[in-house]
Amino acid sequence: MSSVRRLLFATGLLVVSGAVPAFSQSSLASSPSEILAIEGNAPGFLQMLFGGLRPPRDEDAYDGRSQQAALEPEEAEQRSIDPKYLPRVVAYSGSEKSGTIVVDTKARYLYLVLADGQARRYGIGVGREGFTWSGVTQISNKREWPDWIPPDEMLARRPDLPHFMAGGPENPLGARAMYLGSSLYRIHGSNEPWTIGTAVSSGCIRMRNEDVIDLYERVKVGSKVVVL
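User: That's the sequence. What structure does it adopt?
Assistant: Structure tokens below.
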């Protein structure tokens, strides 16, 4: 076969692929420390270029109401996060003030309300069936690389768990924890980032470690938290 024919033949083997109105305050708890409906018991240019935060788009806009998440896998076996759960800045038309955290449990998103009609959105993991909750509370404490002491109820369900685990990379609370009111719930990091976007926890709100560190630096003790 001539060199021209070989080139044409090789070329023929190549296939080029083309490259909501705001939620009602009356539906929430009146006291910041009250928990309702318990069931079952600053982006840079390079970040914008490489898949991190990006300017708001119409389809990303958030109106402050709970939204339904897309169908998720039956099991969280994947070892990478869906890009839609990476943090980004979106439009916000809800009624909460700047500095408020809004958790949309169904959609698996946490929003930190910013000024000028925007919110910083993060993907989260939420409570599995029977462990979801909603209400209004506040951040009562913050901890870096927190220790983990499973509550008695969890130890009763999982006697194989340790009674104490020091803070560190293997700790299930991850790099940071923000404690919610007087409850046992927290917004915390995770050493299982592939579970973001799923419902697997016992009621806590989990984030990637890099995301919870970012949120931790932006909020303070006393910040309002609305869980839908």
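Residues 2-53, 70-78 have pLDDT under 50 and may be disordered.
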